[in-house]
Amino acid sequence: MAENGTDCDQRRIRMSKEQHNGNFTDSSMLSERKRREREERLNIVLWKKPLVTLQYFCLETLINLKEWTIKLWRRRGVLVCVLLALAVLTALYYIQGAHQQYVRYMEKKFFWCAYWVGLGILSSVGLGTGLHTFLLYLGPHIASVTLAAYECNSVNFPEPPYPDQIICPDQETTEGSISLWTIISKVRLEACMWGAGTAIGELPPYFMARAARLSGAEPDDEEYQEFEEMLEHAETAQDFASRAKLAVQNLVQKVGFFGILACASIPNPLFDLAGITCGHFLVPFWTFFGATLIGKAVIKMHIQKLFVIITFSKHIVEQMVALIGAIPSIGPSLQKPFQEYLEAQRIKLHHKSDGAVPQGENWLSWIFEKLVIVMVCYFILSIINSMAQSYAKRLQQKMYSEEKTK
């Protein structure tokens, strides 16, 4: 990007932050007001102001529904085409015939892919806090397939979505027929769909920054304001966090497609900044989304799959359980539940769940289930708090606009 364009952006940032009500005012007063308003919004949470939070959440939901309805009405031609396509698909679904086997196959694949894409979107869309669906869903799924593959010496389980549990096939297979590539191929579809979902979840920061740049308005978004302040103070940045953010911004801005691809291909908590940077500097949509999709759904997902599969390969798991047992004093007591859990899984894989399974639920499974419930509940609460704070932001903006008209 040209340096003149960057200089113009920095001058625009300084002008917009100093100009208020048509006259130049003290920038410290404006920053103090924004800080105070932000603190007020952050206090609108369920555990502090439950009634106000629920009220604001409901009002923000109604406003969003109204806005979406208006947008759909403006695109009613596209909406009619989509409804007609759905009507045709519904008719094909219910009319009996030879095509039903293909319909059932496509239905199963569609819902399986949609499930993982949805989890990927939830992981990166950032409604208050992302739901870490890789740790809660995809990672354990890959681990269970890996353990089952080594135990069964096969990956010929039923096609996804699996039944309540993975069951080893009845056919005899030769020892050592399982390879790393075989397991990668077995979980490739769900992993790539999850990665594609995370790429879709990165689009809101891009569109927000792009719309702000094209309209010339300054959105009331903390991440975007932080990005503009970073541009303004780029030359004086000293701390590691600021330098890291600046490095990501420079990489994306100067290298373009391959810079975005590099940032998306590795676990990178600063990738939201890459989306804001691309939107601010008007990087073409397909350049940004194409690089993000390839990086997250192909390169990054294969790295993560390899890590999980290697970690949960049979000999690694046995070594880890042995190391737990070697811990002085508490080792044997900690080792026992892990051994019981692995043995229970082996029995289930070989159709022997009616007997020999230890009575009572394993505490590892119990802890993981409760962890999933807690994380999902916290994610729902964060959405409620985030939407309530968005409505509070609307009220503050309305008050600010009324003061400007006086």
Distance between the termini: 41 Å
Number of helices: 17
- Rg to the nearest angstrom? 26 Å
Oligomer: single chain
Instruction: Write the element-wise H/E pattern from the N-terminal end onward.
Output: HEEHHHHHHHHHHHHHHHH
Helical fraction equals: over 70%
Organism: Sylvia atricapilla
Keywords: Membrane, Transmembrane, Transmembrane helix
Protein name: VMP1 protein
Transmembrane segments: 77-95, 115-138, 251-267, 273-294, 306-327, 363-384
Commentary on this structure:
The protein is mainly alpha-helical. The protein is built from 17 helices and two strands. Strands 1-2 form a two-stranded antiparallel sheet. Helix 2 crosses helix 17, helix 3 packs across helix 17 and helix 11 crosses helix 12. It is globular, with a radius of gyration of 26 Å. The two termini are 41 Å apart. 22% of the residues are buried.
What structural keywords apply?
mainly alpha, 406 residues, single chain
Helix-strand blueprint:
Elements: H1 3-18, E1 19-20, E2 23-24, H2 27-42, H3 50-74, H4 76-94, H5 100-124, H6 133-152, H7 180-186, H8 188-201, H9 203-215, H10 222-232, H11 240-255, H12 257-264, H13 271-280, H14 285-311, H15 314-325, H16 331-349, H17 363-405
Antiparallel strand pairs: 1-2
Helix pairs in contact: 1-10, 2-17, 3-17, 5-6, 5-8, 6-14, 8-14, 9-13, 11-12, 11-13, 12-14, 15-16
Summarize this, please?
The chain has about 400 residues and is mostly helical.
